[in-house]
Amino acid sequence: MTPPSTPPKFAVFLIVLLDVMGLGLIIPAQPFLARHFGAEPGTITLVGTTYALMQFVLAPVWGALSDRYGRKPILLITLCMTSLGHLAFASATSLLGLFAARALAGSGAANISTAQAVLSDTHAPHERSRAMAIIGAAFGMGFVFGPALGGILFKIEPWAPAVFAAALAASNILFVLLRVPETRRVSENGKQSRTQILEFFRTNKSIRPFVFTTFLSMTAFALMEQTVGLYIQSVWVHTSGDEAMKEATSLTAIFLVVVGLSAIAVQGYFVRKWLKTRAEITLCRLGLVTTAASLLLIPLLGSIGSFPLFLVTAIILAFGSGMFNPSMAGLVSLACPEDKQGLGLALNQSSQALGRIVGPTAAGALFAATAPAPFIAGTILTGIALILLRPIQATR
User: Fold this and answer.
1) Which helix (DSSP H) or strand (DSSP E) does residue 175 occupy?
2) Which class for 156: exposed (0-12), middle (13-18), buried (19 or more C-beta within 10 A)?
3) How far apart are CA 157 and CA 97, in angstroms?
4) 3-state SS string over 59-124?
5) Which of 151, 293, 318, 334 counts the most CB atoms within 10 A of its CB?
6) How would residue 190 be classed by pLDDT, with cut points 50, 70 and 90?
């Protein structure tokens, strides 16, 4: 008897929601746990780099495999890796253990493009960008509930957020296994080697500007993401020791919760509405302008010293990334053949992961030089991304 299935859009929403909640549970405490094991600022940001490195390497592989073998088995495999990675993080007793745990979890987290491909499989081309916005809404909710719950659990036990994240990933596995149907018609023609993946990127000229733009945008975002907690600590935390770590974690969690709440509104309602009448490329450009403004405002409003006023930057940031991400995913999907949706979206995710490698790698050194430097550098990179999109014409 065939088990009951869940509508694809809701299924993808729930898969991504539980996935991002797990990530959100760990992010606020991650830099401070790394510091607890003796890491300096430059090394702290490399913990996030390890996570992104595995996404960069494996996203095209998972995408190509999902084109050949189907979306469901790839989702199950990657969710198992995510759950094991979170458990390893919870049991880590050294900095090396934290790095290994994030590498394993990052290998599983390279599955977002596979979830996006489910939406491509089940939506007509003109509906895909609006469908992709549901992923952004899931990200928003994940970053509301994840960091908020992570901050509470961290005060109970430092390992508690990671254990709960592993439990969420395990429940995600059961959901995919029992309720999510296969949406990709399996074909031997979907077979891809690493050489063929690179050849697809080289020959598909229409996708390249999108991938490069995504890389620059995500590098800018990662510069902010990896240092905003340290920046908040430097401005608003005046205690020391464990109390300083807990206070900085709580304030960082609040910032991320505001980003998440704003993202729910932006991608759950506004972007889906705007895409009915506006071209994807238009929202991409507007999103980049708004993101640049938010990054520039972080050190400007931070210098005033009012944390509630500082949270305005979180709202503006959510509007910028909320307009850019689903619109760019839609543009990539439209630029790819129907039998290469998983691969094309995976290349876009891989470029995001590369940004999460380059950004954190540079973030520590920039922050050590001067606290506003990562945000100023992010503003410049976002401006370059905007220039890359200038030649692209609107399709509607």
Assistant:
1) helix 160-179
2) exposed
3) 18
4) HHHHHHHHHHHCHHHHHHHHHHHHHHHHHHHHCCCCHHHHHHHHHHHHHHHHHHHHHHHHHHHHCC
5) 318
6) very low
Backbone angles phi, psi at 345, to 5 degrees: -65, -30
Correct CATH for 9-182+202-388 of 3.10.310.10, 1.20.1250.20, 1.10.287.950, 2.30.30.60 = 1.20.1250.20
Residues 6 or more apart from 119 whose CB is under 8 A from it?
A: 8, 9, 12, 128, 131, 132, 134, 135
Q: Tell me the pLDDT tens digit for each residue of 150-187.
A: 878 887 888 889 999 999 999 999 999 988 888 876 65
Residue 195's pLDDT band (cuts 50, 70, 90): low
Dump pLDDT digits (tens) for 59-70. Answer: 888 888 888 888
Rounded CA separation 237/251 (Å): 9
Could you state, in order of their start, the residue ranges of all structural domains in the chain? 9-182+202-388
Question: What are the tens digits of pLDDT across the range 89-133?
Answer: 988 889 999 999 999 998 998 888 888 888 888 888 778 888 888
8 Å CB contact between 155 and 246: yes
In whole angstroms, what is the distance from residue 41 CA to residue 101 CA? 19
- Res. 188: pLDDT tops 60: no
Residue type, 119: L
Tell me which residue has tokens 């240092």.
Answer: 227
